[in-house]
Specification:
The chain is of the alpha/beta class and 374 residues long. The radius of gyration is 21 Å and the shape is globular.
């Protein structure tokens, strides 16, 4: 293994999932787990599971005393990614960061070439076995159109797991759209040509991004307020489709074809971690560096700028005070979330309302937005 010491920053639901996959794959690595939330629960977790035997819990205010790691993983709250990165940027090691990162494209361009090549973004679907299997099934197909649906409800119960909440305090474009673009990067090669963004009335809070890649019409439907979770790719008006909401299944002309099985292959999160930890300068195993992803990053910000400058004029909050707008207006929530991220993401000590989730988070976000416009 190319590293022995790993620093892992983050303590929420997703961070715990990522850390668990990390120690399963690399049980002998020494991990400094940096977190300041729910410490007693984390201590209990480390004591009760043998797989965490080499994990040491570190409080955030002790981070400066740590030895320089061989690898750094940042999986903190989305609003904290940028501040955590800036605090650790001086470390001369590979860094894997959960999205989003910077609030504007210029900061990505401002990174040195060395940094652009050693900083990776954790877009796990790029390495998902079912995406690549589906891509192989499209070999020889005359691609005319690809329609992607990426919908999430505001809150979602997942059985025995914690409730999953949509992240409303960041850009929907640097979140959902970025995932979709990483998938399209696998399925079809070529520069992305932006056309427009419109509302998707078929789903609550829907945004439809329309673009072209290599002459193929691409439509991407996004939502953080849908009734149910949807992950679906449809090619040539349904001639071929992949539903990967749970078990990935391929359909031909709406008829069930087959289930895409892992066949001993790792699942997406584990695959990304494996490639990141084993990555070295001689053998770049992970094509998710900032340098590699600059076209996709720019496209996300182009869409964000378009939405902020044009699409929000179609909502009624430009003609009314924020207090008079229904808290269920998803487009105002998207707009306010982008503004919130731009304002606070670089601050270590920021407004704490981003820890509120679901409807409480929506209410707090819109109250914040109303206050800055009084």
């Amino acid at each position: 293994m190319s590293c022995d010491k790993i620093r892992f920053i983050g303590g929420g639901r997703w961070a715990t999932i990522v850390l668990t996959e990390l120690v399963k794959k690399f049980p002998e690595a020494r991990v400094d787990w940096v977190s300041s939330s729910e410490i007693n629960q984390k201590i209990k977790l480390l004591r009760n599971k043998l797989i965490f035997k080499n994990v040491r819990l570190i409080n955030r205010n002790e981070i400066e005393s740590l030895a320089v790691p061989d690898k750094l993983i940042i999986a903190s709250h989305s609003i904290q990614h940028c501040a955590d990165f800036l605090e650790c940027k001086h470390l001369q090691c590979d860094i894997l960061v959960e999205k989003p990162l910077f609030p504007n494209f210029e900061q990505f361009l401002g990174l040195s070439e060395v940094d652009q090549n050693r900083i990776f973004l954790n877009l796990e679907y790029f390495n998902a076995f079912f995406i690549r299997d589906f891509g192989r099934k499209l070999t020889g197909v005359n691609l005319k159109s690809i329609d992607v649906k990426w919908h999430d409800p505001l809150s979602e119960s997942r059985g025995s797991q914690e409730v999953k909440y949509s992240d409303i305090f960041s850009s929907i474009f640097s979140d959902q759209l970025f995932h979709v673009l990483s998938i399209l990067k696998v399925l079809i090669l070529g520069p992305i040509i932006f056309e427009k963004i419109i509302k998707d009335d078929k789903v609550s809070g829907g945004l439809r991004v329309i673009c072209k890649i290599s002459g193929v019409l691409i439509t991407i439907s996004l939502s953080r307020f849908s009734e149910k979770r949807v992950r679906k790719i449809s090619v040539n008006d349904g001639a071929f489709s992949l539903d990967f909401n749970s078990t990935p299944k391929v359909y031909t002309n709406s008829d069930y074809g087959e289930t895409l099985e892992p066949l001993g292959r790792m699942y997406p999160v584990a695959t990304n971690l494996h490639k990141f930890v084993l990555n070295n300068k001689r053998n770049n195993r992970l094509s998710l560096s900032v340098k590699e992803l600059l076209p996709e990053i720019k496209f996300c910000f182009d869409c964000e700028d378009y939405f902020m400058a044009v699409l929000h004029h179609e909502t009624n909050f430009n003609n009314n005070s924020p207090d008079s707008v229904s808290i269920t207006d998803p487009y105002l929530v998207y707009y306010a979330g982008i503004r919130y991220y731009r304002k606070y993401c670089e601050l270590n000590h920021n407004n704490q309302i981003h820890h509120l989730r679901g409807k409480k988070g929506v209410e707090a976000l819109l109250q914040w937005y109303g206050q800055i416009h009084r």
